[in-house]
Structures are given as C-alpha cells and as structure tokens.
Amino acid sequence: MQSLAKFGHTLPPSLWIVTRGAIASGQELSNLVQAPLQGLGKVIALEHNRLWGGMIDLSPNTYNNEVEMLLPAIQTADGEDQIVIREEQCYVPRLISYQPQKGLIQKFNSNSTYLITGGLGALGLQIAEWFVQQGVRHLVLVNRSLASQQTQIILDKLRQKGVTVKVAQADVSSPVAIAGVLEDIKANMPPLRGIIHAAGILDDGILIEQNWQRFWQVLEPKVAGAWNLHQLTQDIQLDFFVCFSSIAALLGSLGQANYAAANAFVDALAHYRQKLGLPGLSINWGPFSGIGMAATVDNYYQTRWQEQGINPLNPEQAMQILELLFKQDKPQVGVFQVDWSIFSQDRRVEVQRPILAELIIPSKLQANEIESNSATSDLLNQLQLADHRDHYEILVTYLQKQVHQILRLASSQLPEPQQGFFDMGIDSLMAIELKNLLESRLHISLPTTLILEFPTIHELAVYLEQEVVILQSSRQTHQIDSPDLLENLEQLSNLETLSDTALVEPDFVQELAELETLLKGNKYE
C-alpha cells in the first residue's frame, strides 16, 4: 500500500486483499492468522479511497475453480468492498441493530476469581470497581507496570471493602508470564471463572508513516495477549471470556490501521471460541468519555468523532450495557453512540460503506446528491466553466476554505496562501483528509505526499492548476465513444503502468500479461 501511494496522478490498479477463512461462516473455524487484514483493509479504504478495491475472503477449503470465482467477483462487485465466497456463492456483511435480551444477567460468584488485563488503566479500574459492586470478592489485575500512587488509593479502597485485589505485573503478550499468573491463581486463590481482556495501546499514524515495529507493538497486547489467554485457559471452566475491541475494527479509523488490525483479531477469536463451544464475546466499543485510550487522544480527533455524529459513551452507560451483554449468545457486538443522520452526511472523506446499508437508508434527496457528486463536483464544474486565467484564484479560495474547516479556525481567519501547511498546524492525518477531499472533488488520484511536495496553498494551487486540471481537460478531450473500449484501455494502461515500476517481480508481470489476455478475450463477461 505504501508503494501504491507513491503514484502521482496516474491511477494504479485498485488494491484487492484476498484472505482464506479469515471470516467465520457457518460452523467452520476462522483462520485467525489472516483476520487482522480485515481491520487493516477498512483503514486503507479511508486513507486511500481512490486506490481501494476491496477484500475477498475465500473458503478455508480450496476449490479448483477459485480463480474463475475470484475474477468475476471483483469485476461485478458493484460497490461492495467486503465479499465472502463460500461454495461458489458470494456473501456480503451488513451491520444490524441489536437489542440485548433483558433478564439474562451474569451472576458473579463471591467465591470465584476474575481476571482483568490492562487492569490498572482507567478502564480496567472502572471495570474492577463495577465487579465489586456486583459482588465479586477476588480480583486479579494484570498490568505491565506497577500501580501509581493515585491508582494505589483506588486499590486500597477496594481492599477496605473486603475484596482481595492482586496486582500481577506481567506482559500479557508473554505466554510464560501469563502462565505464571494463572498458576498463582490456581495455587492461592479461588477458581478462575471470568476474563476481561482490555489491554491495549495506541500508536496512531497514517499508513505511509507506519513500519512493522510500530504495527507490532500495537498488535502484541491484543493479538498475542488474547491468544495466550485463550490457549492457557481452554481447560478451565469459564463463565465468560470478553475481549474489548474497537469501532475501528468495524468501520475503520483514519490513522489507526495497526489498532484496527489488532482488534479485528480479537473479534475473530470470539467467533472462533464459540465454534469450539467455549465462551467468547468481543465488544467493538466506540470512544469513552473521560476514560480509556480515546480519552488520551488529541482534541482534534475527539472533535472529529463528534462532527461525524459519534458521541462518547460515559462509563456508567458502558457498564450498564456490559451487564446486558455478558449472557448473550452473540460472539461480536458493536457498542457506540452515533447519530446516523449526521454520520451519513459526512462528506469530508467520501467512502461508501455498504456494510451500513441496513442502518443508513439515504433519502431520495441524499441519493440524488450522491449521484450528482459522483458525476461531477461543484469545484470541478466551476473550473470547467471558468476562464483558465481564473483557475488559480478559484483553487486558492477553495483550498483556503477547506484548510480553514480542517483546522477549525475562527470564521474570519482564513489561512495565508504563502504560509506553510505544517506552520498552520496541519498534521499528517489532516493532510490525508485534504488529499482525499481533493481527489473526490477533482476525480483524480493524488500522491499521499501531496503537502510535502507542495507545502503551501499557493504551491498546491499552482500544481493543481498546471498538472491536474490540465490532465482532466486532456481526458475529456480524448474521450472514446465506446465505454467498454475505454474501460478496457484504462485497465490495460493501468497494468502497463504497474509493470513498468519496480514494485512487481517478473513472474507477477507475466501473470498480469495473462490476465490482460483474459480481459481482451472477455472470457468472464
């Protein structure tokens, strides 16, 4: 993805991610190793919408005609970017509203032990206090670091209520360390009956800034931690095994590819455990107010959530919902407070999310607006109708307004065309937001390094005027009458563009040539 993002206005082929058995279907067990790609793909769709094709999950069992199934699925996706192929049938996911059954309340045994990973974090302590309110008298809080002075005060208050609280300083990603914690519980405490896996860390950054080290340190506590807990407790009769996941794994989240990938694993693990007849639940939480990792992020991101209609849950609400979910039979439930009418109108990053089709039903007016925007945008239309001598001023004015909105500046405070983007306060995530907006408005592909190469509004406007608008005009001038012919030529041109780069090996170039032959022959029409 990082290599594809280096392309300029020449649009490379769309990226499709193909997995095998990464999504649980029917009674089959999911391929957990590949599950994180599902979370990663949802972030690629947001950060690099113009390059994104989608994800296809093949059956765990191989079939001889898989290529024959795969290519038509891509060609006929019709906007769907998450496809599951099982026994020559294609399926797509949809989120639906869920109302937990009331009356199915988890009863906590005062003579049992309950374990919380990330136990000394604000969220872990909130859960611990709630457990005590439910009658729990034996807690093990697993944390990599020791308790701070402020945290110690909270622990002392719990102990004053007659609760045994053991703090286990251990890295949940280490099987040896977790095995030691479980052995200590077995030897010195009542039987373990429940686990809350809430450990996790953030290291946000757009994909082109990420590297494997940054990815792994976020994957480690979620992926390795959840797997260790699963492996080492399979022979223990647990009442519940709950993983705290994130909305990022369901819908994607700009700048959180590693976090979305990590949480997609624990989502899959809950499905996997239930298929084994073990308790398993993964909760895709939205942001919390005042606690949790979401509370530590920059105000810009919190404001952005709210502008999308996603409001933070307060801890009391979260605990009430958690109480309802313990005894439900669903392996995965999303819990977030969202105004879908606001969410569906967010046009700063124009990404169609078919997975939300059951929750967001666009009005006729919205549908007409989307169709109109897909044909041409106000900006592009304005440039096409204006004298070419006015293009620069039109672009400068437009960029000033968009940067003003992204930075949430005062109404009278328009940024200066000569001022550097980074001097204004634009960060890499905002840069992606601006790039995506320009791509959707001008119907072109732009390099991810856009504001590094053109670091002021003036320089960016000059680039857009001289390069992009000229390219757009050239495309319109050389239109071909046959849409099918144009489409095939564009596909073959894209293949040639990719094969001319250093991104592919010779064998892959040969495979592309074979694919080109298939396309020319219209074998799958």
Short description:
The protein has 525 residues and is an alpha/beta fold.
Low-pLDDT stretches: 367-375, 480-506, 519-525
Helix content: 40-55%
Question: Helical element count?
Answer: 20
Average pLDDT, to the nearest integer? 83
Estimate the strand proportion.
5-15%
The largest β sheet comes out as: 7 strands, parallel
DSSP strand tally: 13
Q: What is the C-alpha radius of gyration, as a whole number of Å?
A: 26 Å
Distance linking N and C termini: 29 Å
- Rough shape? globular
Descriptive report:
The protein is α/β, with parallel strands linked by helices and 525 residues long. Helices cover 46% and strands 12% of the residues. It has 20 helices and 13 strands. A seven-stranded parallel beta sheet has the order 7-6-5-8-9-10-12, with helices on both faces. Strands 1-2-3-4 form a four-stranded mixed beta sheet, sandwiched between helices. Strands 11-13 form a two-stranded antiparallel ribbon. Strand 2 (52-58), helix 2 (66-75) and strand 3 form a beta-alpha-beta unit. Helix 19 (483-499) packs antiparallel against helix 20 (506-521). The radius of gyration is 26 Å and the shape is globular.
What key phrases describe this protein's structure?
single chain; 525 residues; alpha/beta
List the helices and strands and how they pair.
Blueprint: E1 15-20, H1 36-47, E2 52-58, H2 66-75, E3 82-86, E4 89-91, E5 113-117, H3 122-133, E6 138-143, H4 149-160, E7 164-169, H5 175-188, E8 192-197, H6 212-232, E9 240-246, H7 247-251, H8 257-275, E10 281-285, H9 299-307, E11 310-311, H10 315-325, E12 332-335, E13 337-338, H11 340-343, H12 364-375, H13 378-385, H14 391-407, H15 421-424, H16 428-442, H17 450-453, H18 457-477, H19 483-499, H20 506-521
Parallel strand pairs: 1-2, 2-3, 5-6, 5-8, 6-7, 8-9, 9-10, 10-12
Antiparallel strand pairs: 3-4, 11-13
